[in-house]
Design brief:
Layout lengths: L1 H18 L1 H24 L1
Helix pairs in contact: 1-2
Length: 45
């Protein structure tokens, strides 16, 4: 699951770089929140 998350982050990060720094920042914040929401509960199981 962590591998899938890293792949998704890399894919969206590449798309964000292509669309400019402001969009990159917004995507990075979204991905950071998504990562915390999806990974921490799994790690605690």
């Amino acid at each position: 699951i962590i591998g899938v998350s890293v792949w998704s982050i890399n894919l969206l990060r590449n798309a964000a770089f292509a669309n400019g720094s402001l969009h990159k920042t917004a995507v990075s914040v979204f991905l950071f929140k998504y990562f915390l929401a999806s990974e921490i509960p799994i790690n605690e199981l």
